[in-house]
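subagent[fold] <- orchestrator: predict structure for attached chain, return tokens only, no commentary.
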Amino acid sequence: MKNKKVKFQDWGLVDYQQAWDHQEQLFSEIVSSKVQNRTLNLTNLTDNFLVFVEHPHVYTLGKSGKPENLLLNEADLLNKQASYYKINRGGDITYHGPGQIVGYPILDLDNFFTDIHLYLRTLEEAVILTLADYGIEAGRYPGFTGVWLDADNDRARKICALGVRCSRWVTMHGFAFNVNTDLNYFKNIVPCGIDDKDVTSMERELGKKVNINEVKEILKQHISVLFEMDMM
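subagent[fold] -> orchestrator:
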């Protein structure tokens, strides 16, 4: 049986480790439920969550990332009031901070579709549609995940990064969408391991601060429609 009901939660500004631990808890509970259902031949529904959060300054390195893509030492991190974690998602290094919408869909894809590439493309599409609502034309960069502006020329710049983990078709981690993000923090890394492309934000593109809560509502609606979710 499929359950397309999704519990939406906005955790506000939360320490990265605290949010990661909470994600792992929800993820583990869903995986355990699936294993129990199959072992006992039950038809119980599995839960789904969509979490939005902002983090204090933090750099995270994915499983396939290169530590040397962090251009700071421990003293530099302390000076910039930033933390650093090696984590269990795909992808290389990225930055999270205030003014950025970090989305953690913790979904049982058996409730939607079991195609991780389609999952990533659908998340990208939700961000692309959200940007279009603000008059920003965005798209994809062939061979790379995420959402880009001017991907077809030498002005290509990324506005949203993706990195996920999936086990037994249950997802965690997700995307980082730059709204009013301090882009200077990206100068301390090789973002996503790409050293010849720029990073941007809605604030930079529009030349003004954007109401991040309004962006969250629009983005949530696009995700809900694209995944055919019943958002709770």
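orchestrator: received. Logging for downstream: The chain has a mean pLDDT of 95. The radius of gyration is 17 Å.
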